[in-house]
Every structure is written in C-alpha cells, then in structure tokens.
Design goal:
alpha+beta; four-stranded antiparallel beta sheet; about 30% strand; six-stranded mixed beta sheet
Length: about 230
C-alpha cells in the first residue's frame, strides 16, 4: 500500500455535456499566435512559422459558470477566447491524417493572461510562465465528444458584458487542429487527458473585476465566467 506524506491533490477534471462522467485533465498545452490577425496585434509576423507552445497547470481549470478570481501582481488581465481539444488516445509522431482519431472531444475555453507580466518577460527574454500559467487561468466550458464536431470551421466569439470583443472563424487558424496535434506529438508524447488550447483570434483586451465573459464556439458550446 502506497503511503503519502500528505493527501494527494484531487484530480483536475472537466464535466462532460449530457454525462455524469468527468474527463481527467493531465496537462494543458497552449499554441501561441495561431490566428494571423492576433499575431499582427501582438506585433508578430502572421506567416506560418513553426507553431510554439506554452503550458498551464492542470489545476488552473475553472469549471464553466464558476467565477474567476482576478490574479495578483497584475494591472492588465486579458481575455483570449479559444477552441480547446481534449486528447483521448495518446501517441508520439502522430500523422496529420490520423490526428483527429486521437481527439476525445472539444470545449470552449479562455486563456487568461497577465499581459503586463507577459510583455515584460518578452522584453527581457524570460519565460512566460507567470504571465500565462497562474492559478485559475483557464476557464473552460462543458466538454463535448468529438463525433459530429468539425474543428476546421465555425464561428468563435467572446462577449464582455454583452459586447462582442472577439469574433472570428476556426477556418482562420494558421495551423489547423490536426497539424497542431501532429506537430506537438513530435515534441512530447501526448497522453489521454491532455488538453490543447489552439490559439485566440484578434480582439484581446483587458478585463476588470465585475466583468462577465461569455464565449461561444460554433458546434462545440459555450463558456461563461465572471471576474471577481
């Protein structure tokens, strides 16, 4: 019998639409600058440079409808609306043609960002970790099974206090979902429970306490959270 020096933490998990089962979260990978217009607004070249990634802790997930606390040590908390891919079958060096067979499901998500901390890290050549991977930085909606979902196209949108701030189409992803899965699987061996946040379109902006964020990915679902 295994003995721990203190009780292990609970497993981070996402609720599944129409089911009492939960999807256990292993790791969260995020693709940077994967929409051309967002790359431009961040001051980068929107061409198809190789995708790059950063991570968030599994327990940074905020379940749909729950409040998101405004984090410490920032004066510029930004929203980034994204399609999230949930891996159900792992693998290494996955081909683009086979990539979607590794997907369990999808959900709508928010990559909350301490933009001032991220920008300072960029200027000094330091890691982005504390700008991206902080506590409660990944609000996510209900997970839906992959069957019938087409991640190649569909509206993606975010409203803040009822006003549209981000709107685009998944067809504008620089690197498609299968391409991202294939590329990431060359760098790490993907495993069941891994989540991939696929990038955000243009229109990212700061939010403050009291703001209500309501996101939508066509054919996938919604995400709602209030900043407190």
């Amino acid at each position: 019998m295994v003995s721990y020096v203190f009780p292990p933490p609970p497993v981070a998990a996402l609720p599944i639409k129409g089911s009492d089962a939960l999807f256990p979260v292993r790791r969260i990978f995020c693709v940077g600058r994967n929409y051309a217009e967002h790359a431009i607004e961040m001051g980068s070249d929107p061409t198809r440079e190789p995708p790059f990634y950063f991570t968030k802790p599994a327990d940074s997930v905020v379940i749909n409808g729950a409040d998101t606390p405004y984090p410490s040590v920032t004066k510029s908390l930004h929203h980034e609306m994204e399609l999230v891919v949930a891996i159900g079958r792992g693998g290494r060096n996955i081909s683009v043609a086979d990539a979607l067979s590794h997907v369990w499901g999808y959900c709508a998500g928010l990559d909350m960002t301490r933009r001032d901390i991220q920008n300072e890290a960029k200027k000094t050549g330091r890691p982005w970790d504390m700008g991206k991977g902080f506590d409660k930085s990944a609000p996510m909606g209900l997970l839906v099974p992959a069957a019938g979902v087409n991640p190649a196209k569909g509206k993606i949108e975010l409203k803040v206090n009822g006003k549209v701030t981000q709107t685009s189409d998944l067809a504008k992803l620089i690197w498609s979902v299968p391409e991202v899965i294939a590329n990431l699987s060359e760098l790490v061996e993907l495993a069941p429970g891994d989540l991939i946040m696929t990038g955000t379109p243009e229109g990212v902006a700061a939010v403050v306490r009291g703001d209500v964020l309501e996101g939508f990915v066509e054919g996938v679902g919604d995400i709602r959270t209030k900043i407190i």
